[in-house]
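Re: that chain you flagged

S.,

Sorry for the slow reply, it's been a week of failed gels. I finally had a moment to sit down with the sequence you sent. For the record, here it is as I used it:
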Amino acid sequence: MSDNEIEKWHEFNKPPKEIRTARYSFNPKTTSTLSPSYIFQDVHRVLVSMQKLIDGQLQFKRKQDYYLIQCRMTADGDEVEFDVEVCKVWLLNLHGVRIKKQGGSAIKFKDAYSMIVDMLEIN
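Prediction finished late last night. Pasting the structure tokens below so you have them in one place:
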């Protein structure tokens, strides 16, 4: 790895100012007692792997103040935008991955959601 790639990785995985608490429907595959930084690194690993699997049709960027990644996936003429966030699960001593559709094809979102959840290794 070059120094530039290492610097980008550290900037992307920099801890946020705060971790948001969220109410959302969660399942055992998307929650963990692991640290939020470890979960975020695993989410980043999954998104990079997805980019390679679907030939770069997935773009993502991090919103710096939170463990939030904004994603856009294009495939077969359909497009979907969604957010992937590591947050604290309300009323529980757990952290989870919340995946929320922002717009676009519901079928592509379902595919992306399933792929992300299947590739996560946080349990």
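What I noticed first: The CA atoms of residues 47 and 106 lie 19 Å apart.

Talk soon,
D.
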